[in-house]
Design brief:
The chain is α+β, with helices and mostly antiparallel strands and 357 residues long. It is 61% helix and 8% strand. It is built from 14 helices and six strands. Strands 1, 2, 3, 4, 5 and 6 form a six-stranded mixed beta sheet that branches. Helix 1 runs antiparallel to helix 4 and helix 3 packs antiparallel against helix 4. It starts with 13 loop residues before the first helix and ends in an 8-residue tail after the last helix. The model has no long low-confidence stretch (mean pLDDT 84).
C-alpha cells in the first residue's frame, strides 16, 4: 500500500532557511527551532510516519542544494549540512513528544476503560461502545481469568509482557484483552474460545513461578465481564481459605462452596454443633480438624490418609476414635460422614476455629 502524500506545509519554508544559511553561515534561531518542533508535533498528530518525513526533508535539501550550497564552497556546504541536522533533530523531537503524549493518553483511556469494565462503573451502553475500541464486543459472552503470583505485577513488568507475547503469538487476530489489576494478571476473552484462557492459565502459571490461576464462567453483556471477574476473584479467595493448591481453578467446579455458605448462620450452627466439641481435645480443635480434612480428601481411605499426615495407621485410627468420642459422630460411618464433611468444609470457609462463630 502506498504511503499517503505528505503536504508541503510540514516543510514550512525549509528551502528558504537552507538558502539563507548557505549565504550567511548562520545557525537556526530559537524561534525557527521551536517552529520545527511544532511542525513535528502536527505531523505526528496527522498520522504520518517519521521515516517518510525525514526522507521528505532530505529530498528537499537535495533539491535546493545547487543554489544553496554555492557550488563547491566548503564553508557553505558545512553550514547547510549543520542546518539540515538542526532541522531534522528539532522536527524529530517534536514528533516524538507528540507520540509519547499520544501513548500516555491511549494508556490512560485504556486504564480508565478497564477500571470501569471490571468494577461495573459507567453507563453500560456507553461502556459497550467504548469496548469496540479495544476489540471487545460486550453484547457477546466473555470470560475472565485472573492469575496471581508471589509478587504484585504492573503492565510494564517482564511477567505480563512475556505472557502477552505468548498469547499474541498463539492467537494473533483474536479479540483478547490482557491487563493487570491490583497486582494480578487479568485476561478477558470471548466465552466461545475457552482455549484462549486455558493457554493464558498455562503461560501465567509458568511465568509467575507456579502462581495460581482462576477462570470465571462466561457471561453475556457488559455486566457479564464484571460477573466473571468476580467469580475468578472469589475462586482465588476460596482456594486460600480452603487450602486448594490446584494450579488452575474453574469457578464452575466450585459452585458448591458459595451454595454452602449462602446461609452463613445455618453453616455456623452446623460447625458449632458437629465440630465444637473438638475444642476440648488436647491442643485444641485444629489438629483433629486437619485430620478430618485430609481423611475426606483421601476418600476416607485410612492408609492414604496416614501417609499424607506422616502417621502410622494405628495413630490415625486413634485420632478418628477420639473424634468419635468427642463429637458423637463416626467419620467412618456413612450415616455420619456427610454432616461431618460438610461441617469441615464450613469450618474452612468460615475460618474456624481461628475466628469465633
Amino acid at each position: 500500500m502506498a504511503e499517503p502524500e505528505i503536504p508541503d506545509r510540514f516543510l514550512g519554508g525549509y528551502a528558504q532557511i537552507l538558502g539563507e544559511v548557505a549565504d550567511t553561515g548562520r545557525r537556526l534561531t530559537r524561534d525557527e527551532l521551536e517552529a520545527r518542533r511544532a511542525l513535528g508535533r502536527e505531523s505526528a498528530e496527522a498520522g504520518h510516519q517519521l521515516r517518510a518525513l525525514v526522507r521528505l526533508h532530505l529530498a528537499e535539501a537535495r533539491a535546493a542544494w545547487p543554489g544553496a550550497a554555492k557550488g563547491s564552497d566548503p564553508a557553505a556546504t558545512d553550514a547547510v549540512l549543520a542546518a539540515v541536522e538542526q532541522v531534522v533533530d528539532a522536527f524529530a523531537e517534536g514528533f516524538e513528544r507528540a507520540q509519547r503524549l499520544t501513548v500516555r493518553r491511549e494508556e490512560a483511556a485504556r486504564r480508565e476503560f478497564i477500571d470501569d469494565l471490571l468494577y461495573g462503573r459507567s453507563d453500560l451502553g456507553r461502556l459497550a461502545e467504548r469496548a469496540t475500541r479495544f476489540g471487545l464486543r460486550l453484547s457477546r459472552a466473555h470470560a475472565v481469568a485472573v492469575a496471581t503470583g508471589p509478587e504484585a505485577y504492573t503492565e510494564s513488568d517482564a511477567v505480563p509482557r512475556s505472557v502477552e507475547s505468548a498469547l499474541l503469538a498463539r492467537f494473533s487476530g483474536r479479540k483478547i484483552l490482557l491487563t493487570t489489576k491490583d497486582g494480578r494478571l487479568v485476561c478477558i476473552a470471548p466465552g466461545s474460545q475457552p482455549d484462549v484462557l486455558r493457554y493464558f492459565a498455562k503461560q501465567a502459571h509458568a511465568a509467575t513461578d507456579g502462581g495460581q490461576v482462576a477462570v470465571g464462567r462466561p457471561h453475556r453483556g457488559p455486566g457479564g465481564v464484571v460477573h466473571s471477574y468476580d467469580e475468578a476473584l472469589e475462586a482465588l479467595d476460596l482456594a486460600q481459605r480452603m487450602g486448594l493448591d490446584d494450579p488452575v481453578l474453574y469457578a464452575a467446579d466450585l459452585l458448591v462452596y458459595p451454595v454452602l455458605t449462602r446461609d452463613r448462620q445455618a453453616m455456623a450452627d452446623l460447625v458449632r454443633s458437629e465440630l465444637g466439641p473438638l475444642q476440648q481435645a488436647r491442643g485444641g480443635a485444629e489438629p483433629l480438624l486437619h485430620t478430618l480434612s485430609v481423611y475426606f480428601d483421601a476418600g476416607c481411605v485410612a492408609a492414604e490418609t496416614a501417609r499424607r499426615l506422616a502417621l502410622s495407621v494405628r495413630a490415625l485410627t486413634y485420632r478418628l476414635e477420639r473424634i468419635h468420642q468427642l463429637t458423637g459422630s463416626d467419620p467412618s460411618d456413612p450415616m455420619h460422614r456427610y454432616s461431618l464433611q460438610t461441617a469441615v468444609i464450613g469450618a474452612r470457609l468460615l475460618d474456624w476455629p481461628a475466628k469465633e462463630l
